[in-house]
C-alpha cells in the first residue's frame, strides 16, 4: 500500500538528484508563497468537498465527500486521530512513531445535526462541519481549541509518485507554540516556519533548520489552554506557526498520508503525557549513565585513555563514562579495533571498569566496501545494504572511504546488526554511541531519494525512510544490546531520531560550538527536546568545535549538571578539554558541580522514574508551570529539573548578577537557604562559583554521598534535605538495583514523603510502594528553613535525643532505621 513510487530515473548521479531536490524545494517554496491557503488556489491543489456521509466501525468514523475520505479515530479520552485518503484508500496502519495504539476502553458518541457531525469523548469533541468539511476540536466546555482555516488539501504529484499533503488551521493572536525537538531557535515557535529532514549540521547556527532530528509534534497554548498536534508523517515535513500569515498555522509533507493526532490538554503537561502514551517513554537508564561522561574525538591510543581516566581519579572529579570515538577502529571499520592503538581492548576495558569507568564506543552506519571485512562480506551476501531503484547498491563516502549502508528499516537487518555487538559486549563495552545516522554522507549530504527501504514490509523510498533511518539504527543497537546483555540495561546515545526514539536511546544535540551563544542555544534545545518527548538529552559540554575559555567551560559544566544527560565532548583539533584543563579556580568549581550532580543522582533517578512511568519530562520550562500568563510563553532561560529544583544557567561572560523568574509559591535559595516568594523575577548574585538554583518549599531532596563513580561504595545512609513548608507537599524517592529490568516486575521501591507544617510543628510521613529492599536503612536528616528551634523530635513515637542546631539554622539528626512518621515540635 505504498503511495510513493521510485524515482523513475536511476541513471541520475547523486549530485543531479540533489539538484533536482533543490529545484523541487524551490518550487515548493514558490507554491507556498503563492498559496498561503487564502484563496489563490493553484489548479493542482485539491480540497475536501462537502461531507455527505458518516460511517462508524468500532471507534473509527468515516466521512466522505464522494471521492476523498476522512477517518476519525477515538484513541483515548484525550486523543483523536484524523486521517485523509484523497481517493478513499487508506494506507495500512503502520508507524515507527506509534508502535501500538493505546487500547484502553473509551466511551464516545457520534452526533449529527444540520450543521455538523460531531465525534465526542467526555473530554474532546471533534466537529466536522457539513458546509465545507472544516474540522475543529473543542473541550467539554465547548471551548474551541483548534479549527481548520481551509479544508484539508493535497496536491497530486505524479512526478514524485504521491501527494503533497497539507493541513491549515487558524492561529489565534496570542497563540504560542512549543515542541518540534532540537530546533535552535526561541522556545516559543510562534512566527516560525520550520522543516523536518534529518541533517548532519556541523557547527550549526542559531535559527539553522533543519538539524539532526525530526519530531513532528507541537503544543499550542492559547487562552491558557493547551493542545498538541502530532503529525505522524515521516516524509520531509514543514510547519508554519503564523509565519506566512499571522492568522494561520499549517503543516504539510511532501508524501505519505495526512495523518495527525489531536491531543487535548488543558495543561501542557497533560499533552506531553498523552503524547508519551502514543510514542512511549524512555526505559530506566542504568544508574551509572546519570553520572558524568567524558568524551573527545578521539582519546587514543590506550595510554591516552588511561591517562584521562587517571586524571579524574587524581583530581578527585567524579566520572562514570569514557568514550572512544572513531579512531579506536581499524580504518573506521565498525566492530573492529585498531590493534596498534589498542592492542588488548578487553584488558583495557576491564581495568577501566575496575577503576569505575564504563566504556562507550561509537558506531557509524557506513560499512566500508571491502571484501576482506567480515561485516561487509556478510551484509553483502545477505543483501542487507540499501539499494537504488535499479537494484544497484547505494554507495557513499564517509569516514571509512567508500561505504554501503545497512537498511535498518528491515527487521532482519536490525536483528543482524544488533547481534554484531556481541564481541564488544564480551569485551566489556557498556554503551554504544550512534553517530552519522541522519544518515550523513560526505558531499551528497545524505542518500539519494530513490534508495529503496524495506520499511518493515511497507516498502518505500528514502523520501519516506530518511527521517526514521537513525531511529531504526539505534533501535537495532538497543534491542541487540538488550538481548546480549541479558537482564542488564544497555546505554545508547544517538544523534538522529524521529518521534519515539526515546524508547531506545538518549540523544545529544550534535556538533555545537564553543561560544556563549551556543550555551544559550543548548539551554533552549534541552528544554525543547524534553517537552518534545526526548527526556534523556544533553549538549556537548564546552562546545564541540572551537575553544572555550575556563569561564565558558565552567558555566557549561554548571548548566550540564542539570542536563538529564551530562557529557563533555570536543572536536579533535581543539586543546585538551577535561574538567581540570583550565587550572584554578575552574577545576575546583567544575569539581564542585560534578559532585553536586552525583549528590543529586537519587533525585534525578526518581525524576527519571516519573518520566518512565508517567510520561513527565525531566526538564520543564517555565511555561509548563504557568501557561496562563502569556509573558511566561517567552521565558526560556529558567527551567525546573524535575518539579522541585529551579535552575537558571548563567550564559553571559563576566555576569555576576542576573534576574531569575520564579513560579508562584515559596522557594529556597539552594546556596543561602534564603526564602523567596515566587510569581516574580528576583535578582540573584552569580559569582562564577555559583549559579541560580532554588528549591521549592516542602521538598524532600534526597542526596547520596559524593562518590568518584556510581556504586563506588555501598550507600549506608541517604541524606534527606527537608525544606520547611506551611502547606502539604509530596516528594518521591525511587530506588532499585539500578542496572536490571527487574523494575518491570515491580522490583523497585517508591517512597513517598509528605511534609506539612505550621509555626509549632512539622510532620514528615513516609509511605512505601514496591518490592525492592534497599541495602541501607538509615537517614541523615537536614531540616532547612524551620521557623523555630525544636525542643522535641520524635520518629515513630520515639524521642530523638541527639540533634544538632547549626549556625545556618539548619537542624541535623540521624536515624538508623526507616520511618513512617516524624514530628518536630517547638
Ligand atoms: O564527521 O566521530 O557529531 O560528536 O565526534 C564527524 C567524529 C563525525 C560527528 C559527531 C561528533 C563526533 C564526530 N562525528
UniProtKB/TrEMBL annotation:
Residue span, Glycoside hydrolase family 31 TIM barrel domain: 283-606
Domain named DUF5110: residues: 718-785
Domain Glycoside hydrolase family 31 N-terminal: 70-240
Ranges of residues in domain Glycosyl hydrolase family 31 C-terminal: 615-701
Gene Ontology molecular function: any one: carbohydrate binding
Sorted UniProt keywords: Glycosidase, Hydrolase
Gene3D superfamilies reported in the protein's UniProt record: Glycosidases (3.20.20.80), glycosyl hydrolase (family 31) (2.60.40.1760), Golgi alpha-mannosidase II (2.60.40.1180)
Listed InterPro entries: DUF5110, Gal_mutarotase_sf_dom, GH, Glyco_hydro_31_AS, Glyco_hydro_31_C, Glyco_hydro_31_N_dom, Glyco_hydro_31_TIM, Glyco_hydro_b
Database matches in Pfam families: DUF5110 (PF17137), Gal_mutarotas_2 (PF13802), Glyco_hydro_31_2nd (PF01055), Glyco_hydro_31_3rd (PF21365)
CDD domains: GH31_glucosidase_II_MalA (cd06604), GH31_N (cd14752)
GO biological process terms, semicolon-separated: carbohydrate metabolic process
Domain of life where this protein originates: Bacteria
Membership in a protein family: Belongs to the glycosyl hydrolase 31 family.
UniProt name for this protein: DUF4968 domain-containing protein
Organism: Mucilaginibacter celer
